[in-house]
Structure formats: C-alpha cells, structure tokens
Write a structure and sequence with these properties.
Radius of gyration of chain B: 19 Å
Distance between the termini of chain B: 50 Å
Strand content of chain B: 5-15%
Structural class of chain B: alpha/beta
CATH superfamily of chain B: Divalent-metal-dependent TIM barrel enzymes
Distance between the termini of chain A: 56 Å
Oligomer: heterodimer
Order of helices and strands of chain A: HHEHHHHHEEHEEHHHE
InterPro entries (chain A): DUF2063, DUF2063_N_sf
GO molecular function, one term (chain A): DNA binding
Number of domains of chain B: 1
Organism (chain A): Kordiimonas lacus
InterPro entries (chain B): MbnB/TglH/ChrH (IPR007801), Xyl_isomerase-like_sf (IPR036237)
Number of strands of chain B: 12
Protein name (chain A): Putative DNA-binding domain-containing protein
Chain lengths: ~270, ~325
C-alpha cells in the first residue's frame, strides 16, 4: 500500500474496518505513519474498534427489546456478525437495522432442519426484531399529523386505511413482550401464541392494538382491495357468513373504535 | 444573542465574509426536544444534524419546524462523504437542498472526510490522504455540491487518528487550497485540532499558524477522552482547558465566527450543555473563565464519532392498547 491511489486506499481501509482480521501488519505500516505514542496498527485500531462499537450501540438503540431478550453479550455477538455480513449501505443510520430480522432468519444455525425441529426461541427473536423494526420505521414515517381525522359520520366509501398503518402477524406475543420491557420489567421468553396487531401513529404516539384473526384478515383485505365494501364481501365469502352479519359486526363492533384510534382517514385527506 | 458576545463580535475583524455572526449555539439533540419546546431557552442558534431530518416524516421534523420559527438553524451533515471516490449521492444532495431551503439554513456544513466506498457507509468520518490527487478530486466534488445546494459548502477539519505515509499536504494547507479553488468556507473544530495534533505528535501552534482563518464562519467545541497514549474525540464531556485556550486564540483570528458546542455521548440535561457553551463568553472577552459545572462521570467506552445520539427513543413513544 505504499503507492496507492485514492480509490485503492479507500477500498483497503473500508475492508480493514469491516473485516479487521484480513489486514496484514505490513500493509498497515506501509499506509500509516506511527502515531506519537502508538504504532500504526494501533492507530488504525482506533477506527476499527470504534466502527463496531458505534454501530453495535445503534442496533441496541433500535432493537432494545431484542437486546433485552438475547442478553447484552449475545445480542452484541449477533450485531457484530450482522454488521460484518450486512454493512450499512445508506447515508442514514435509520436504515441500519433494516435487514436485521431477515439476517437472523437466514443465518439461524438450525435453518436446514425441518420447521418442526427448529429452536422456537430463534423464531421469537426473528418476530420480535421484525416488530421492533416496524415500530422504528413507523416512528419517523410520513404520517397524518396536521391533517383532519374522520369522526365516524362519513360513509364507508369515503374512508381509506391510514397509509402508514402496519398490520402484523407474529408467532409469539412480541408486542406484549416489548411493552413489558418498556415498562422496566424482565419478562420471560413467552411460549408460542399467534399475535395479530395493528400499529398506528397518531399525534406522534405509536400505539399497538391487538386484533382477532378475523379482524386482521378484514383489515388486510381493506389494504389489498382498497375498499371497505369489497373487504366485507371478501370476509363474508372467506368465513362463509352472511354478508349482512359481517357488515353489521363491522358497524356495531369495531367501526367507531377503529376510526377513533386512527386506523382510517378520509380519502380526500390522504 | 448574548449582549457581551454581540459586542465582541462587532469589535472583531471580519475579512470579507457575508456569513451571519449567530452568537453561541448548541447542537440540537433528540433528548432535548421536549425541554426546548417547553422552555424555549435563550439560545442564540441551533445546529441540526442534516441526516436526522431530511427523511423525517415524524416528530423529529415537526420539532425542527417549530424550532426554526424561533431560532436560526444551521445544518451539519455526517454523510456527504465529500472525499469518497464513490459517485456523489445526487438524491442525498437533493434532499439536503430541500431541507436547507425549508428551514432557511444559515449555512450547510459537513466534514473533510470520506464515510464509505463501494456503496457502503462506515458512519465514521474517515481520514483523507492529503495529496494533490485528493485536492483535485475533492475540489471538483465541492463545486458540484455547491451548484446543487446553491450556496457555499462549509467544511470541518475532522479528528484524526492516523497519518498517511503518502500525504504530501498539511491539513491547513489543504483546506486553504480548497477554499481558494472552490469558494467553500470552513468550520474550525478546535477540539479536533487538539485531538489530531496530540495523536500525530505535532504542534497545535504550527497547525494554527498555518490555518486559513479568513475562511472560517463557524467553530466547534467539544469534549474528548484522553486515553494516555492517544485521544479519542468522544463528544461526551465538558471542553478541557487546553481546547478552551485554542478557542481563545482562534476566535479573534476568525473575525468572530459562530461557536457551537457538541455534546453527543452521555448527553446531560439541556441546561448543562447550554452552560458549557456559555463559558465561551469569558474566552471571547478575555476575562477569567467561569468555573466548569460538575458533570457526571462517563459511562461509555471511548468511541470516536459517536452516532447513537442520532437514534431516537422509539420505545418511549410507544404503547399497547386494547379497543
């Protein structure tokens, strides 16, 4: 590295940060002068050490419940390996954890086993990280603040789902676990239990609402079909219940509560 | 602006800059949002981290929109990567321009560094090999950035932990040439000068003698961690006496550049941060400095370029509720 061009040197140093073990001492001494009190390798080591500490801390901040569930040491091991495999490819730190849940899933040690033989705690970590990423993204996503909200007097045809509403289905009660951690408790890892949720941000407050599987399917249908009427018909066909029953349940059981919670906005205000 | 500082600024010589003298500023941090919105503290101006707001559709951007109505805003970036040999990120620059226009940024700054290559981002301010090749490369990119932003770019001297065998130009000379060739301006971080010179075993006096103060529009102050054999630029504590002395010497030479305090690790309550930058008054006016306010002990390891302060506390704004 004694006569490197600027691109050569930058490639070399980037690799030295991401994979410190691959850098040989001779190339370090050929690239950098010794510091006042430490040699060239120790000087580079300040960058190498800070690189991983800095980004690891950001992942802890972005996945506090996953870090709690894994424990600090194990989470750091996961984070370090993730950062080596999936170094940041964005100018913003907000994207740092975008691939984290997928990376855990792709790299689970039991991934070649049949699903029935896999470790359930890994499934829990994947779902928890997925949920945390959804919350993190929603926190700063474009929202509806500053615009009018419907009051329930509108016809169904005037309503559309809040564009940023998140519908989630998890194999474990991850939302419960997350908020137990938020409350300062130390919950045990929960056993498998399907959890369906809607996550909404209103007035910059992010709220997770547990849903029944039936309601989750309905909201998914609204999201996909773009219309409450079409979703009611879809739900009636799927559940083999009379359309009027389903429509009545929508109107009397959930409509006003969901509007008040911010699930819907007026089409013209989107 | 504080009266004493305003008077001192008026008295200071300022060779030809049209940049405003903003007074004593504080780096805008997520953990202080609620306090600022409630107390509207008497701060002269705020410096916002560009990347925290250019994509924000949530509360951070809403908070900045409130703050911009009451205080001058300067944008300070950490990901422009002006020294990288990757292509400039045009989408990033377009968003930066839109944000700068929207918040009426008094100026837009970033660092003389590169942050990544091959499409990757280290989220660190990595050192540039200071050669004629690098000068030509960076100058060309500064011109492009200034064309997009439609304003001069302000570049900061970074903290450095290495010196390249191949470097042929000193940092002050590199910055002077860059300003002369492009019309860009400078943000002089006196803590970074101290850190870089200590780590390299070079003289801060020599650095300051060579520095092109006539191009400086802003100054940074920050704390660091002294590790015995080297210093790490941690931004996690009060400014040390040696850095204050550098500030005292440099500020007059800049003609009254706008000082700002950065506190990014173990961030204390707002009033403590504000009190630290107000200590600059004494050094500006040449009177006995105010005694430093006690600060809690550090809790973090010496990590350069801390960035976790940029990650919002999402958990704090989340709840679970049944209908």
């Amino acid at each position: 590295m004694t006569t490197a061009t600027l691109p050569d040197m930058q490639r070399w140093m980037m690799e030295a940060l991401i994979a410190p073990g691959r850098v040989d001492g001779a190339s370090v001494a050929g690239t950098f002068k010794p510091g006042a009190h430490i040699d060239a390798a120790a000087c580079l080591g300040i960058y190498q050490r800070s690189y991983i500490l800095r980004l690891r801390q950001c992942l802890i901040e972005q996945f506090p419940a996953t870090a709690h569930a894994l424990g600090q040491d194990l989470f750091c091991d996961f984070a370090d390996e993730y950062l080596r495999s999936c170094p940041s490819d964005s100018y913003t730190l907000y994207e740092l954890g975008r691939r984290f849940a997928g990376w855990i899933s792709d790299n689970r040690p039991d991934k070649d086993l049949p699903e029935s033989e896999r470790e359930s705690w890994i499934d829990f970590m994947i779902d928890l990280a997925t949920y945390e990423r959804a919350l993190f993204h929603l926190f700063d996503a474009p929202g509806h603040e500053g615009k009018p909200w419907p009051d329930g007097q509108e016809a169904d045809a005037e309503l559309t789902l809040l564009p940023s509403l998140v519908l989630g289905h998890y194999r474990f009660p991850v939302a419960w676990y997350y908020h137990e951690v938020r409350a300062g408790k130390s919950p045990a890892h929960p056993g498998p239990a399907s959890q369906y949720v809607a996550v909404v941000r209103r007035d910059f407050q992010t709220t997770t609402y547990p849903l029944s599987p039936f309601h989750h399917r309905f909201l998914m249908a609204v999201q996909q079909l773009g219309s409450i009427d079409a979703a009611l018909e879809d739900l009636a066909a799927w559940s083999q219940r009379p359309l009027e029953d389903v429509r009545n349940s929508w109107r009397t059981d959930v409509r006003q509560g969901w509007i008040d919670a911010g699930f819907f906005i007026r089409r013209g205000d989107a | 602006m504080d009266g004493a500082v305003k008077q001192s600024v008026a008295q200071a010589e300022n060779p030809g800059s049209t940049f405003e003298r903003l007074g004593l500023g504080v780096g805008l941090r997520n953990s202080h949002f609620d306090h600022i919105l409630k107390a509207w503290p008497e701060v002269d101006w705020f410096e916002a981290i560009s990347e925290n707001f250019m994509d924000s559709g949530g509360r951070p951007r809403w908070v900045l929109d409130q703050i911009k109505e009451r205080y001058p805003i300067v944008l300070h970036g950490v990901s422009m990567s002006i020294g990288s040999t990757d292509p400039l990120d045009r989408a990033y620059l377009a968003k930066l321009k839109a944000l700068a226009d929207d918040v009426k940024a008094r100026w837009v700054s970033d660092h003389l560094c590169w942050t990544g290559i091959m499409g990757l981002n280290s989220h660190d301010l990595l050192p540039l090999m200071l050669t004629e090749e690098a000068l030509t490369h960076v100058a060309a990119r500064v011109r492009i950035v200034q064309d997009v932003l439609e304003r001069p770019l302000v570049l900061e001297n970074p903290s450095s932990y290495v010196q390249f065998q191949q470097s042929t130009i000193s940092e002050p000379d590199f910055l002077r040439a860059l300003c002369d060739q492009t019309g860009c301006k400078l943000l002089l971080d006196v803590n970074n000068v101290y850190v870089t010179c200590f780590n390299a075993g070079t003289s801060t006096d020599d650095y300051m003698k060579a520095f092109p103060f006539e191009h400086v529009v802003q100054m940074h102050l920050a704390g660091h961690q002294h590790c015995g054999t080297h210093i790490v630029d941690t931004h996690d504590g009060p400014v040390c006496d040696e850095v204050w002395q550098l500030f005292r010497a440099a500020w007059q030479k800049t003609g009254g550049a706008s000082p700002l305090l950065e506190w990014d690790g173990d961030v204390p309550e707002f009033d403590r941060v504000h009190a630290e930058v107000l200590r600059a008054r004494a050094y500006i006016d040449g009177i006995d400095p105010v005694e430093a306010v006690a600060t809690r002990s550090r809790t973090s390891a010496a990590t350069s370029t801390p960035v976790d302060f940029m990650v919002p506390n999402v958990m704090g704004d989340s709840r679970m509720q049944t209908l």
